């Protein structure tokens, strides 16, 4: 689409909305930025976007009447949704009824950007895999951009890309809901377990959103899938792109797998990549993330010596089973990125000592049974806070776990952990819930935890 002279609505501010607005203004569009939050500072927003006194930027804030909504949509050529905006909102439905194309910021960036996209989705492991693949590509290609749900909007770099660029993109289900022509050269779905059901409403809708990552791929492209995940294994049976599986449990005829402690890449020839003991990231889930990154890089043509060297150097991702410090004989781990039960299970599985666990937060309609069952004798005390604390406590007691302490604040929860942890124990922040309501995001929550640890 040619944007020059077009009227485009950007729905939702935040870093994605601001970056999308900047890109559209650069491309010559007239931008109307709308956000339902009327507490935002209009002048501050305009300054951040770089619009300032720009006549091509208009900002509308707060709830709209039906008449105001109709007036706002009049004459639009395109609407670009930020990932946090549900696609089933009445205003979005109205756009569709009026024939206004509805894109996400990923589609916008893809339409402007150049180069090849390597895109990763999945319920868990996206950030680690994206970061690792990003490091591999940086060691191979000078023009590499790591973007998406990882905190760096694709729209913020799209204008800088060239034909020889590689864009490594972490894709959430929210971002994949609004693609149209987006086509990665190599895609990956790491796993699919229940998450964000408050947004998608059904597991089927959540799975369908994740699987859209491959819908525009052709037989010239590659999709990397987890053989041990029933949903992704079945998905790989009927899709257009070439499929490469990875597995932590069995040897594959073609793919990347664990053989004892060795990661094997068996695609064109059988190659020993490295031992899992050479990696700096803990746990089987991280070995799977490493195998997914190996498969994607190899499928894209990266030499194995570069892949191998990067794997051994990679230090992991902040807020994902991140060792913080040892204080008074107690080891402190920050797994604030464990924002759903399945991710938090991986945090517990990585612990090898009695653990005092901080859990709870925003309610995403998750079930906590499997998380509690994964305690497996390791968790000696569960400290709960946030909107989900009663729900989690009821689940835990029903399953026979009663060493529970309630806290009214994050600081209080941390103090309880310090009180109950003995030398030789671990304290693990792995909440199984989002941070909303108490913190802006999981990063802020993890940073607060590290600050409290380092003050001990």
UniProtKB/TrEMBL annotation:
Residues 319-433 form the Mur ligase C-terminal domain. Residues 120-297 form the Mur ligase central domain. The keyword Cell division applies. GO terms for molecular function: ATP binding; UDP-N-acetylmuramoylalanine-D-glutamate ligase activity. InterPro entries: Mur-like_cat_sf, Mur_ligase_C, Mur_ligase_C_dom_sf, Mur_ligase_cen, MurD. Keywords: ATP-binding, Cell cycle, Cell division, Cell shape, Cell wall biogenesis/degradation, Cytoplasm, Ligase, Nucleotide-binding, Peptidoglycan synthesis. It is an enzyme of class 6 (ligase). One of its GO terms (biological process) is cell wall organization. Its EC number is 6.3.2.9. The keyword Disulfide bond does not apply. ATP binds at residues 122-128. Belongs to the MurCDEF family. PANTHER family: UDP-N-ACETYLMURAMOYLALANINE--D-GLUTAMATE LIGASE. Cell wall formation. Catalyzes the addition of glutamate to the nucleotide precursor UDP-N-acetylmuramoyl-L-alanine (UMA). This is UDP-N-acetylmuramoylalanine--D-glutamate ligase. It comes from Candidatus Mediterraneibacter stercoravium.
């Amino acid at each position: 689409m040619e944007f020059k002279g077009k009227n485009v609505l950007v729905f939702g501010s935040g870093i994605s909305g601001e970056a999308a607005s900047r890109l559209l203004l650069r491309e010559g569009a007239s931008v109307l930025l709308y956000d339902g939050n009327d507490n935002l500072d209009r002048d501050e927003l305009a300054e951040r976007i770089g619009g300032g006194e720009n006549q091509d930027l208009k900002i509308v804030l707060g709830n709209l009447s039906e008449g105001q909504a109709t007036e706002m949509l009049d004459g639009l050529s395109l609407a670009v949704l930020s990932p946090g905006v549900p696609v089933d909102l009445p205003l979005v439905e109205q756009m569709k009824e009026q024939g206004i194309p509805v894109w996400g910021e990923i589609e916008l960036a893809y339409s402007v950007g150049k180069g090849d996209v390597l895109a990763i989705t999945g319920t868990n492991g996206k950030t680690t895999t994206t970061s690792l693949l990003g490091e591999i590509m940086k060691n191979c290609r000078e023009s590499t951009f790591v973007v998406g749900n990882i905190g760096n909007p694709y729209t913020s770099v799209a204008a800088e890309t060239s034909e020889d660029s590689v864009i490594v993109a972490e894709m959430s289900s929210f971002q994949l809901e609004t693609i149209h022509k987006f086509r990665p050269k190599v895609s990956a779905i790491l796993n699919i377990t229940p998450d964000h059901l408050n947004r998608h409403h059904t597991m089927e809708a959540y799975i369908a959103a994740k699987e859209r990552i491959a819908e525009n791929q052709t037989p010239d492209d590659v999709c990397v899938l987890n053989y041990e995940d029933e949903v992704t294994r079945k998905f790989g049976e009927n899709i257009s792109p070439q499929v490469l599986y990875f597995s932590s449990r069995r040897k594959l005829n073609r793919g990347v797998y664990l053989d004892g402690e060795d990661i094997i890449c068996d695609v064109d020839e059988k190659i020993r990549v490295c031992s899992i003991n050479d990696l700096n990231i803990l746990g089987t889930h991280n070995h799977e993330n490493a195998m997914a990154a190996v498969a994607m890089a190899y499928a894209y043509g990266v030499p194995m010596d570069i892949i191998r060297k990067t794997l051994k150097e990679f230090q992991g991702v902040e807020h994902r089973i991140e060792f913080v410090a040892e204080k008074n004989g107690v080891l402190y781990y920050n797994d604030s990125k464990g924002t759903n039960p399945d991710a938090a299970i991986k945090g517990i599985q990585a612990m090898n000592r009695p653990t005092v666990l901080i859990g709870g937060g925003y309610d995403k309609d998750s079930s906590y049974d499997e998380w509690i069952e994964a305690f497996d004798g390791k968790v000696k005390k569960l400290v709960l806070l946030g909107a989900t604390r009663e729900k989690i406590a009821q689940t835990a007691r029903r399953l026979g776990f009663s060493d529970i302490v309630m806290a009214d604040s994050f600081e209080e929860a941390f103090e309880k952990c310090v009180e109950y942890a003995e030398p030789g124990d671990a304290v693990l922040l792995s909440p199984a819930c989002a941070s909303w309501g108490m913190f802006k995001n999981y990063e802020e929550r993890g940073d607060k935890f590290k600050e409290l640890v380092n003050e001990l």
